[in-house]
Each structure stands twice: as C-alpha cells, then as structure tokens.
Amino acid sequence: MPLLEIVRETPTTTTYRFRGDLGGKPGQFLMVWIPRYDELPMALSHLGAVKGITVRDYGDATHALAAFTAGDRIGVRGPYGNAFQLEGPSVLAVGGGSGMASMIAAIEAFAQQGARVVTAVGARTAAELLFVERANAAGEMHIATDDGSRGSAGFVPALAEKLLARESFAQVITCGPERMMAAVVDLARQKGLPVQASLERYMKCGIGICDACALDDKLVCWDGPIFTGDQLAKSEEFGRYRRDKSGRRVPV
Amino acid sequence: MVDLRTEIAGVALRNPTMLASGFLDETGGSMARVYQAGAGAVVTKSVGPQPREGYPNPTIVELDAGLLNAVGLPNPGVIEYEHEVKRAQAAGAVVIGSVYGKDADEYAAVAAKMSTYGVQAIELNLSCPHAKGLGTEIAQDEAAVRDFTREVKDVVDIPVFPKLSPNVQDIAKFAVAAEEGGADGIVAINTMKAMAITPELKMPSLANRFGGLSGPAIRPIGVRAVYDICEKVQIPVIGVGGVGSGRDALEYIMAGASAVQVGTAILSRGLGVFNEIAREMASLLEEAGFQSVPEAIGVAHA
C-alpha cells in the first residue's frame, strides 16, 4: 500500500494513512509490514475509505517507519481480531499513551450512535497526549499527565476513579500499558460495571495458528485483542506475564 | 457405529486426528484447548536445547494454495517447556514431544529430557525446510536419518517417530533408513520448500525469503509419499499434509497411514476441525462398509 499522508501526532507518535478497501471495526488491528524490518500488529486508528494506523516509535522497525514519506509502501494484512462491543447509553474510555490509538475509533463510533462518551486520556507529559481533540469532539474529555504539565497530575486510573465516583456509566473501555489497564479493570469490576480492555502481545501470524500471542489458553490475535473484565479476572497472566519471542513467560 | 479409535506403536488415540507440530502448540494452554476441541493427540512445537526466538516477521503468507511459513522454530527451550507439557497433560491431553537440535547428541539430549515430562512419544523434526545450522535438514541424508534415530532410541523408552521431508527424490528410502535406526513409526510429510514474492514491494514476502508450504496444495504429494513409504516399511505411518476433511484423512488412511495430523485446516475450519474430520470419517467409513479405522488402513494398496 502506498502511504497517502503522514501526520506527526506527538513527538514520538505518527499516523500513517493509506487507501484500503479492507473493512475494519473499532478495535481491530492490521498486520503491518515495514519492508526490510518487521511486520507488527497495529490498531486501526482511522476507519473509512482512507485507513490509518497510529504508531509509537519504540524500536528499530517503528523507527524506520518514522522516516517513511508519502508514496513509500507498506504491506498490510487484516483486519484481524475482535472489535469493541458498542452497547449502552454511556461509556467511560480510559486511555494511556499510545493506547488511545486502539480506542479512538470506538470512542467516535460510540458517540455517533448517540452514547454519552467520557474519555480520560493519560500520558507522561502534555506533549505526549494522543487524540485529545478527537476525544473532545466525541464527548467529554479529561486529562492526566504524570508530570502535571496538563490536566491533573498523576496516573490516569486515579482520574478514572474520580469520574466513576462522580457518575455512573453503562460500561468502561480501556487501552494502555497493561498495569494501567489492570488497575482500570479492577476499578470497573469493583463498581460492577462491564469493562473491555484491548491487549497487546508479540505476534507472528496474527491469524490464530502460531501461538506466539498466547494469554492463558486464549490467543490475543484471535480471541482478542479485546477481552472482557470477566475473562481478565480469571486470567493468570493478565497484568503479570507476557511471552517473549521464544515463548518464555516473562513479567509484563 | 464406526469405532474411530486407533493406535500407533502402542500410543492409543481416541480418534485418528492429531495436531500437527507448529500450530497452537508453544503453550500448554493452547495444547489443552486443541485437545479439548477434539484432537486425538497434540504434537508440541519443535523444542530444542535452548530458547530460540525464530525469524523476524513476516513469517507467514496466506496463499490460495495454502500457507507459506518461515516461523523459524521459536521455542522456550526444553527446560522451560516442562511447564507447558504439564499444563496440557493436566487437561488430559495425549502429548507427543517434537524435538530438534544441531546434531545427534543434542537431539538425544532434548528427547531424553522431554521423555521425563511424561510425553507419550517423541517426534523427531528432521525436516524443517527453513532452519539453517540445525539438524532439521538431515532428512536429506539417509545415513543421518538412521543414526539420529538410533541415537535417540538409545536414550528414551517411549516410541520415536522421525518426521520426514518431501524435499527429496525418493522419500521411501529415508523411511527405510529410519526403520533401520529403530524408529517406531514415520511421520510424513513436512512442508514443501517454497517461496512467494510481493510484486508491489519487489521482494520476497517472507523475511527469511523462502519457507515451507502447507495446506491443500501439498495433500497429493503427502498421500503419494505415505503410499510409497508403506510399500517399503513395516512400522506405522502418520500422514500429514493438507488434511482438512474426513475425506482427506481417509485418503491418507487408505494410502497406509494409521493416523493423520492437521494444521493449516485450523485456519479455514477453526478448532472444530478435529471433531468435524472425525465425524466425517465415521460416516464415510460406515458408507464404505468398515467397522473401524484399522480395517481401512492401506486398503488402496490392494
């Protein structure tokens, strides 16, 4: 796929747009081939005719991708995985860092079907906040930064706790660092609210055969990437372990 | 009612479908799930002496004809793998341990360790078409097949099944060599060496450039290999390659296989594929007048 447009969202995060008649629902991901470097799972941050993926520069392949310009080609397969279930009159969306990339399409889809959407966006600093304008346009938006440079100072689960105390939501969705998500899942379950979390694991095939992305007896690519709070509460591995490239269980 | 139970070198199976090595078998949780979904047995990911990351992505390409992969034998190493085997066994799974190494000594050491985990048999991956510097291309050398098999046989007291490569002129000679080395059964075939190119990017579609082809395209190759092997050896054969239906499985059984392995068909039919194949086999066997699987083994040789 030739890249149509490249948008620098934050100092470390970039959106790549391309035309693709692939379909795709909020929360699904693509396997994106960065030629000569790697193929990685990436969430669809823009649905519609001109698709988009939003990628944090964190390794060799994503760093190489950051140097791509319009017209450069990537390979794309998918979309794969399940989607956020968009039900109920209201939702609290809790996003940390580049996790917003996996949730923003769901935030907008919820709003479009008339739900009240409140988003809590967290990042290390103000400059790293992702998709705050889009989240704001979809409903109410609150910010937490680790260094207090914008919004409330501290981690986003603390902000979510305040919002959950202030009003009742029909459900919670979350994506971000796994320990953050584990805290949000706990908060939602304490309130008895349905919660969905979008997980990330190392993947090879993306289509449910290679077992690289195993989470207990589930596959993040096939059964996920979105799991319910009930599933995660039963998990031995969520918030604790992931698998490295060789399949060894290592701490999250 | 047709009796679907079968047996290979003393390993009893509730039905003749086994999970092929390389699919959903790096973790105990997934192997347990596949067994619970109906497989008669599960073969583990090929496990070596040390942890191995495998190749960089892209490692798979979906083709019309099947699946091309160069995953590159990722595995956590035989020491850590104990936990995964135990977890599968706790769910009641019949587990066959697939092993590899860089030489016969390593194969024997890994097989010996694996056998202490309570696996029912050892599969020797002698034939991965895309792993360099490992013993996995020894299925190209008859003497090596014999010697590696013998060395493993000397250190384990469970059945040993060498898995052979179709990327040779006459696969039956290699099966004979394995039998001479003391093999208790033969697994045939591994994937066919193959390649795909992405024209838009002007480069091979796999990071490793070439890989192994599995799925429907290689079924006739596998059936022929099993047929030839069964003309030359007395030990049982497990047929692998493009099995996606009960009818496909019966082709292998009638060519002489005692059981079949299933992998790529999980993509098209899901994990229910094991139960579905078993059900389809039962009805086809019944129509053909067979009471059990063993009655149908090798009938195409008549």
Strand content of chain A: 25-35%
Number of E-type strands of chain B: 16
The run of helices and strands of chain B is EEEHEEEHEHEHEHEEEEEHEHEHHH
Please state the structural category of chain B.
Answer: alpha/beta
CA-to-CA gap between the ends of chain A?
Answer: 33 Å
Silhouette of chain A: globular
Shape label of chain B: globular
Number of helices of chain B: 10
End-to-end Cα distance of chain B: 25 Å
Q: Which percent range fits the helix content of chain B?
A: 25-40%
Which sheet architecture does the biggest sheet of chain A show? 7 strands, mixed
Low-pLDDT residue spans of chain A: none
- Global structural class of chain A: alpha/beta
Largest interface: A-B, 31 and 39 residues
- State the helical fraction of chain A: 10-25%
Major sheet characteristics of chain B? 8 strands, parallel, barrel
Total beta strand runs of chain A: 17
Please give the radius of gyration of chain B in angstroms.
18 Å
Strand adjacency order, main sheet of chain A: 10-9-8-7-11-12-15
The overall average pLDDT of chain B, rounded, is: 95
Instruction: Average the pLDDT over all residues of chain A and give the rounded result.
Output: 97
